[in-house]
Structures are given as structure tokens and as C-alpha cells.
Amino acid sequence: MEFPLTAMLRERYLDTLASIYIYNEHRGYTSLDRVLDAVRSCCPEDHGFISEIISHRADEEKHYRMFRRWFERRGHMPLAVDRTCGHIDRFIEAIFGCTIEQLDTSRIIAEPAEFEKLCRVIMLTEQRGFAQVDLLLRNRIVRSDPVMMRIFRIIHEDEPSHFLPYQHWLERNAKAGPSRRERWTDFTIHKSLLLVKLPSLFVNPTARRLQAWPDVDNQVYS
Q1: Which of 108, 121, 165, 204 has the fewest C-beta atoms under 10 angstroms from its C-beta?
Q2: How many structural domains comprise the chain?
Q3: Hey, how many other C-beta atoms are within 10 angstroms of the C-beta on 209?
């Protein structure tokens, strides 16, 4: 028999985890529109690469909607998080020195090194996501929720097709792999989310919830 406090903490953990994931999935598919613009300009003849990114975007939106349905079944909205909980947000800011919205697509198109850097950032972000979901599938609290387990199994199955297109493009074009700085940035962002952001949101009794879904009327997270 589960004690009431244990059940409350378990539910709070799942709520916090899903709130961070739904933010990142929404951020992922909306940000990929900008990536597609860059790829269509940089590699207009590479139809396979473009198709893979379109598929990547569709998967990210699918994952967002799965988490949305998870919250809808529970009868409440996700906790409101900002870009400090976004892996890709913080990675872009660390490597390019600007937010995703401020990312200069025209400069990325004009400078091949910048486009290569963008591909490496996306590749590392998705590889990190794959490794993290692998761990979550063995997490006792996650395993206690059959619906969330089903969501993470689908994400785990989809994830390789999200980083391999960028990895293969870099390899096909004999471009450099991730630098030591890029790998270290990825590692530190991940540890910060895992050890600081998630616990602080978990224990924050005043954390507010979203008032509307971010995909409604083109709303975005603040």
C-alpha cells in the first residue's frame, strides 16, 4: 500500500518531469521551422536531408501532443517553465550568444561554419535526449505510470532519427564533429537541468501553471 505522502511526491515528480518535457518538445518543433529555412537555402538539392528534418519536426510535435493529452487526462495544465529549462534554448545561447528567436538565419546561411555549428548543436541535443530517455525508462517512478511509459517508449524509438540526419550530413560533407567546448556545454546544461532546475521546480509550492496551451493562437512560452 502506498502512503499518501509517497503518492503525492510521486505525482509531483511526474508533473514536474512532464512539464519540462512538454516545454522542450514544443520548443523543439517550433524551432525546427527556422532550421528548415536554413537547410533549404544551404542544401536545396539535398532532398533526403530536408525530408528527414521535416520528419524530425513532425515527431517533436507528436511528442508535445502526447504530453498534452497526458496533462488533459489529469485535469490540469503543465507547470509554467521558461527557457532556462530548455536544453536547446540554453545550448543556442551558449554557442551562438543569442536566443533562438534572435538567431540570425541569414548569417547561418551565408557562413558555412555557422550552419555546421547549428547541426552539431542539434545533434548533441538529440543524442542527450536519447540517453536521458533510456534512463527514464528504467526509473521506478516513471514505470509506475503506464501512460508516461508508453510516451517515453515512443520517444526512445523516434530519437535516433532525430540526431542521425545531422550526424550523417556532417560525415557526408567531411565536416568536423563536436568540439570539446560543445560537448562540455551539452554536459553542463544537462547536469544543470537534472540537478538544479528539476529539483527547484519540484519543491516550489508557488510554481504557477500555464493558463493556455502554447500551440493555441501561436502562443509561446515566456
Answers
A1: 204
A2: 1
A3: 12
Grid coordinates given for 29: 518543433
Spatial distance between the Cα atoms of 92 and 80, rounded to a whole number of angstroms: 21
The answer to whether position 209 is within a domain reads: no
Cell digits of residue 175: 565536416
Q: What angle do CA 60, 111, 46 make, to 5 degrees?
A: 55
Q: Is residue 219 part of a domain?
A: no
Return the sign of the alpha-carbon dihedral for residues 152, 154, 122, 110.
negative
Q: Give the span between the Cα atoms of 88 and 128, in whole angstroms.
A: 11
- Determine the length of the chain: 222
Band (pLDDT 50/70/90 cuts) for residue 222 is very low
Count CB atoms within 10 A of the CB of residue 190.
Answer: 19
Beta bridge partners of 19: none
Query: pTM of this prediction?
Result: 0.92
